[in-house]
Every structure is written in C-alpha cells, then in structure tokens.
Amino acid sequence: MQFTERINRIQISPTSAVIAEADKLKSKGVDIADFGPGEPDFPTPDHIKKAAIRAIEQNLTKYTPTGGILPLRESIAAWHKRELGSNYEPKECVVNVGGKHSIFNVVSVLVQQGHEVIIPAPYWVSYPDIVKYAGATPVFVPSYPEDGFAVKASVIEKAITPKTRMVILSSPNNPTGGVIPPDEYEKILAACKKNNVWLMGDECYSHFTYEPHKPYSIASAAGSKENVIIIGSMSKTFAMTGWRIGYTLAPEALVQATVKLQSQSTSNPTSIAQHAALEAMRGSMDSVPVMLAEYAKRRKRIVEGLRGISGVACEMPGGAFYAFPNVAAHLANGGSGQALAKDTTELAKLLLDKARVALVPGDAFGAPGYLRLSYATSIERIDEGLRRLDHFFSRAEAAA
Ligand SMILES: Cc1ncc(COP(=O)(O)O)c(C=O)c1O
Hints:
Elements: H1 5-8, H2 14-27, E1 33-34, H3 46-57, H4 70-84, E2 93-96, H5 99-110, E3 116-121, H6 126-133, E4 137-142, H7 153-159, E5 164-170, H8 182-194, E6 198-202, E7 228-233, E8 246-249, H9 252-263, H10 271-282, H11 287-307, E9 322-323, H12 344-355, E10 357-358, E11 360-361, E12 371-374, H13 379-399
Parallel strand pairs: 1-10, 3-4, 3-5, 5-6, 6-7
Antiparallel strand pairs: 2-8, 7-8, 9-12, 11-12
Helix pairs in contact: 3-10, 4-10, 5-6, 5-9, 7-8, 11-13
The structure holds pyridoxal-5'-phosphate.
Pyridoxal-5'-phosphate is lined by residues 38, 98-100, 124, 170, 174, 202, 204, 233, 235, 241, 246.
C-alpha cells in the first residue's frame, strides 16, 4: 500500500510496541514481570472519578469550545500559578487530548522544513518523530549520567544554529528521571532568548520529584513568557492516563494557532474528561504525596536491586518513575564477558522471551547500552522482576 512520505518518516512508538508484545504473552497466561508501561499503577482518585460521573448525569456530554471549557482553562492557569509560580491567563491556556497532543499541536504550528529542533538525549521517544512529521530535523545533544542526566546549558548553546527553532526539554525526564536544576534551566532560557529560539518545557512529571529536587517550572522565571511553551498533563500527576487531558500554556497568539489546528482535527477534548480534570485542578491533591511516597520506596528498591546485578550500573533518578540502568557490559563490544546481545533492542527481546521481563530498550530513547524500567508497579512485582534479571544475567555470566 502506498502511504505519504510524511507518515513514512515516523515509526510506531517503541514503548507501545513493547507493551503490545508483553500484553500478547500475558493474554496467553504467561506471567510477565512488567516494567514496560509509563503510567501510574494507581487508580484515578475517587473525587475525580465522581466529578466525571456527575458530568455524565448532568448531560455535560456535548461539544465544548475547541480549546476547552473556560472554567478548566481558568483553573489550569490558577493551579499552575499556585503550584509552579507562573503567571498565565486563561486566554494563554488551551486544553488538549493529552500532553502528547499538546506537543504535536505546538510543533505543527511552529516548526517546518528547514528548521532544527534541539532535543537532549536520552529523550522521550515521541519528540523526534513529532519533529520529523512536521518536516524539521531533530538535533540531539547529550546529557550525561555523571550530571544525573540533566542537560547543560553550554551543550545546548553550542548546538544552536540560525536554523534552530525550538529546544524541547523534559524535566523530570522520561526515560532517565533526570531533573534540570533551576539555575541551569534559567541559563538554557537565557541562551534561547539570546538566539530567539522557543523553549518547550514538558512538565508531565512535574510533581514526581525526589529530595533534594522540588517541582519547578521555567515559566516561573522572570521574562520567560515570550520564549517559553509549557506542556502539562493530567496523566501522571493524577493517574489519569486514559482520560486524555493535557494542556499548553503559551503566548495567546500561539495558543490561538493551536486552537485553529485542533478545530480541524480532534475538536474539543472529551467533555466528561474535562470535568474530571476540572476537579483535579480544583480539588484535593492529597493523592499526589501518597503516590510519590510509594514511588520513592520503589525507586530505592529497584535501583539498589539493579546495582546488585553483575554488569549493571544505575544512577538514582531525581524524578519520574523510571530506572535507567546501563547494561553495556553485557552487549557486544561493551565488556569483557560474553556478549548476550548486539544491542539493547535484542537484549530486551531476549529478556522478554527467556526471563519473562518486559522493559524498553535504551535504543528507543537514543541511549544505546541502557534499559528503561518503569517502577510504577508493586514492590512484590519489582522484587520478582529483579530476581528474574539477576538470574538471567548471572547465568549468562557463569556461561561466559
Ligand atoms: C515526557 C513525556 N511527555 C509527555 C507525555 C504524554 O503524556 P500524555 O499524552 O498521556 O499526557 C509522556 C507520556 O508518557 C511523557 O513521558
């Protein structure tokens, strides 16, 4: 079948591919230690679910304004101000069908052929493909484990050319958990301002940071508004991945352009989900520290467990809910022992087939030699997965 050149530029999200493969085995009754999904294993808090039920009962089930109902845009602006110190008005806010959609819209209206977009690696899988779909070129810059995978302003500044249109940062980062310290983030903003480049701050994991890090938004920096685009999401903070509500905070003209695009594609995000999100923004946030405390316990357990496995090194992530171990010692050309696989894509497949552990290869994130394990799963399943990984790698070691 003949498809457009633009759709042929991109690939199916590798994280979805891993999840599909693991699900196939699970449906056949195979017990998988599943570190694949990038979503909270907690249910959506009750008060949010009840707001959605009320919305259905009140027949709030019709089209809404394309960019979201005004009370929701007001409450997102107010929440972001209260929680993260920004200063947006409702007209500078648009509600989208998840944070991924927010990014897709913004990139679509700002970026085109001939433009470059700077993306620190390891990166979230969707950034490069969204940029390529828009016809532009992703330019990858490194972030290093010894810096906790927080990209440096000097590295970004060096990569800026006259073609650079945007820098995309995710902090806390998926897949590394890296958190960019506020002073470094401000230096990146200064470099963007100096070069007239947009700075997109993806804050989907903003509230999942571990001491000494705190939730932070670059939108709280003085003079940020003209250059900054904030991407937010209900998905992780409120365990609402399936509801598909994200938002964009940006200068009004940019917001209007994305509303125009949205009016010719998805139209409004689901009305019922908007009412649920309204409750998330206005109601109690008690569930957030509860989830965070549980993630903190799991983070310690999984990182210590991974560090105990032969040939595996792992940084302590500063945020989000992913461990990102380096397993290069087990790969061809990576270490002294016998190579288990030529790359992490092959290794992840082996781990699924032989050890019944699902995880995402670092290759997918522009990080050869690494694996991503989501610890949004119970301590019991983490322990079981660690046992399987230890067994797999130590048997391989013994055979070498
Ligand atoms: C870094 C990052 N940004 C954005 C998203 C998008 O999330 P959603 O579309 O569910 O809001 C994700 C989801 O995994 C993510 O990891």
